[in-house]
Structures are given as structure tokens and as C-alpha cells.
Design a protein that fits this description.
Rossmann fold, about 130 residues, about 45% helix, 5 helices
Amino acid sequence: MAFRVLIVDDSPVMRAFVRRVLDVSGLDVGAVFEACDGVEALELLDREWVDVVLTDINMPNMDGEEFVAHLLERNSSAPVPVIVISTDGTVARMEHLRALGVRGYLAKPFLPEALRLEVEKVVGVCDAR
Ligand SMILES: [Mg+2]
């Protein structure tokens, strides 16, 4: 079944790159939404259901860490899987994000295949094939 993705990044170039990677990944992507920071992402998620969130960390207004904390708190019974895509790949940062409930982590720059694998892990594409 096609899944729905939200890409959160303040860089339009990075959002376009992630969208392109998903397009050519072979994954069954049904809809792709974009937001430029945590505030916009939370507003969008008030209106739209998504199966996975791909988020940057360093963004204006509300950064990725605050966004993830809000998101996972308000959906604590059925949390949306979140994959972080950030230049900050320090162990301390990753451990903190895992503790918040983040399911996957990709350090920029990343290979398209690495993104595909992270997304596959959380959307369970192998079901019934
Ligand atoms: Mg950024």
C-alpha cells in the first residue's frame, strides 16, 4: 500500500533532493508533503496523516528536536515513525534523539540507498509480498 511522507527541512534544495530520492527509490510513495520548519510541520500534521516523517534538525522557528518532542508527545499512543536527516551525527545527539523516540538517523550527506533502507525499515514494505 502506498505510504505518505512528510519532509521537514529549511533547505528547499534538500527537500527537493529527498523527494527525488523517494521518487526513484522504487518504494510505493503515495503522497509527499513538505514543511520548512517544526511549526509548519505540526500545522500540516493537524490536517494530514502521514506514515513517516523525515526531518532535519537545524531549522529556524522550531528546530527538529523540539518538533520531534512535540510530535511524539501528542501522538504518544500511536507515534508516527520519525527519521532524522542531519549534518549533526554526533553520538550524543543520536542517543538523545533515540531516547525521544526517533526511529532512524541519517547523516548528511547520505547516499540515496541509505535513505531507502531507513524508510523501508519503518514502513514495512515487505508485508505480503
Ligand atoms: Mg537545516
